[in-house]
């Protein structure tokens, strides 16, 4: 291997030190790749991830964080930073912005992110509002199943549902397989009424979509909507102004046509509720997975936020989010859509 190649793979924070200089803080534990050869190849082709440069890329992002945001309270572990590099195809600048947005979103919406742990969401989990199917799709994507009809608004606010979704995404993204393959969302809107739909207004939509598009390191490969009533046209009118074209093109509305759904998600991975052969829909198993991760979430989301971090929530927002004035316009248009569709 050439001297130039060796220098690229050497941590600059170590190579540049002399014996008389202060040593940097100890580095986190070393990274060990868990990807199969097939996924390594997929990551190389789709995400521009080169195994021989991987640690160099992580170190470059780590150095950027330390230089540009020295007071940011964030993990700098190899495995953690890799999530952001993969989500932005190893573009350093975009990965850094995603990391900052990730923390900015968490600081700017305390109703969702304060005290975020599975034990605080037992009612949502018990309702069957969401789960993750036990089998992945043919591309290796986990399927997150969301059923808004299971939510009773008088029991708890809509933000509790959003908290449960975020917990699920955080748990899923721990897997390197998910970082490479992404996820698929299956949303069943059976029985969603006008009164329930009205809780998901433009302000909530802006925040949720801002997180999913620009504030969380996950690849959403498709959103399959089934059993949507006429009211869904109004719901989608709320959502669409905040969607990037790439994401909007990944929405598929199937109505009650399960054959259309099966053309995208095979029956072998679907529960019988959706015409599948994988048995009845099981929510208990995923609930148990989340509840078993209580300590990890307490450590990550239930600690005081350093005062020096508070500037993030005030100055940095995911790119592409609409202004409050735009939200007001969207709200008026959406209300008109909702009532005309009902």
Automatic annotation (TrEMBL):
Positions of the CRAL-TRIO domain: 117-282
GO cellular component: trans-Golgi network membrane
Coiled coil: none
Domain of life: Eukaryota
InterPro entries the record matches: CRAL-TRIO_dom, CRAL-TRIO_dom_sf, CRAL/TRIO_N_dom, CRAL/TRIO_N_dom_sf
Compositionally biased spans, kind Polar residues: 8-19
Region (Disordered): 1-29
One of the record's GO molecular function terms: phosphatidylinositol-3,5-bisphosphate binding
UniProt-recorded name of the protein: CRAL-TRIO domain-containing protein
Organism listed in the record: Colobus angolensis palliatus (Peters' Angolan colobus)
């Amino acid at each position: 291997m050439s001297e130039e190649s060796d220098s690229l793979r050497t941590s600059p924070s170590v190579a540049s030190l002399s014996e008389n200089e202060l040593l940097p803080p100890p580095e986190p534990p070393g990274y060990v790749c868990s990807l199969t050869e097939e996924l390594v190849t997929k990551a190389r082709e789709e995400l521009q991830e080169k195994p021989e440069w991987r640690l160099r890329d992580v170190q470059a992002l780590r150095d950027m964080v330390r230089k540009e945001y020295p007071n940011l309270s964030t993990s700098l572990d190899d495995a953690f930073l890799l999530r952001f590099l993969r989500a932005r195809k190893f573009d350093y600048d975009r990965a850094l912005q995603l990391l900052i947005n990730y923390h900015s979103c968490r600081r700017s919406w305390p109703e969702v992110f304060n005290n975020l742990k599975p034990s605080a969401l037992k009612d949502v989990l018990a309702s069957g509002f969401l789960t993750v199917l036990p089998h992945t799709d043919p591309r290796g994507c986990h399927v997150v199943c969301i059923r808004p009809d299971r939510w009773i608004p008088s029991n708890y606010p809509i933000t509790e549902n959003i908290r449960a979704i975020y917990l699920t995404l955080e748990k899923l993204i721990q897997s390197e397989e998910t970082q490479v393959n992404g996820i698929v969302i299956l949303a069943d809107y059976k029985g969603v009424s006008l009164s329930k739909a009205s809780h998901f207004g433009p302000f909530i939509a802006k925040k949720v979509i801002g997180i999913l598009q620009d504030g969380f390191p996950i690849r959403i490969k498709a959103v399959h909507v089934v059993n949507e009533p006429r009211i869904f046209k109004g719901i989608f009118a709320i959502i669409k102004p905040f969607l990037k074209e790439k994401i909007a093109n990944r929405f598929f509305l199937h109505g009650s046509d399960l054959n259309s759904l099966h053309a995208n998600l095979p029956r072998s991975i679907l529960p019988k509720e959706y015409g599948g052969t994988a048995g009845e829909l099981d929510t208990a198993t995923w609930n148990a997975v989340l509840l078993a991760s209580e300590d990890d979430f307490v450590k990550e989301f239930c600690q005081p936020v350093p005062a020096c971090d508070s500037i993030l929530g005030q100055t940095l927002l995911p790119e592409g989010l609409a202004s409050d004035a735009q939200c007001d316009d969207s709200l008026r248009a959406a209300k008109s859509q909702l009532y005309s569709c009902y």
